[in-house]
Request: fold
Amino acid sequence: MSAYYQQQYLNTHKIKANAVWISDIHLGNKDCKAEFLLDLLTRLECKTLYLVGDIIDMWSLSKNFYWPEQHNKIIRKLMKMAKSDCRVIYIPGNHDMNFRDFVGEKFGEIEVHQQAIHITADKRKLLVIHGDELDNVIRFNRVIKCMGDLAYDLLLFINRFNNKMRKKLGFNYWSLATYIKNRVKNAQAAINCFEQAAMQLAKKQHLDGVICGHIHHPNIRQENGVLYCNDGDWIENCTFMLEDDAGWLEIIHWSDIAKREKAIKLNSIHHAA
Reply:
């Protein structure tokens, strides 16, 4: 978190931005960190909000219906933001691809697009896609992929239990799945391959860069003059990306901010006493 936004948060408890990108929320999935996202949305003020796919996890819902009230609150909040001064652009992903049938239409005031071109305050043109369009570049043997999916589901299950215990002990959120993924060479190779393919796509379209989600790996990098941005997810990382009024792009881990806010409140109470 930059000094500017850290100070802004400490002073106002609001996050103000020119544009914000959020993806891979996976509403309808038990591992969705809805409480962190809802906290962010209540504090967020931006001109444009991009929902970069996998907002609703239709895959999970088809297997096991799970839809708590917090997930309803997130949908209502997004609809309310779209009716205010915030332009909300929804780019469906592979887990909510059914909504691609509605490209060019609106849900309330939420616009549905296949992809978008975002022009930053400093005039850079960035392609906005979910990222599943690039799956062919990181395709593995079917058996290996199946084993990987099962291992990932197991990690998320353990992660859920681990963070319940951490919360009881007063510790902040921590992703076991991300920790392990960052240390597995094959996973790192697949991530790098995906990032390279995304930058090549932007380059072919004569754009300055690309913003996506899909792989649950937040990152900003620039290579050969092409910018790659991934806003992360709300299953493992609780991250989003924002652009300030000068065109500065930054990834923010919201669970860390929620932890910081708790410390600020405790300090305020202590000093008041």
About this structure: The longest strand covers residues 15-22. The CA atoms of residues 90 and 117 lie 13 Å apart. The radius of gyration is 19 Å.
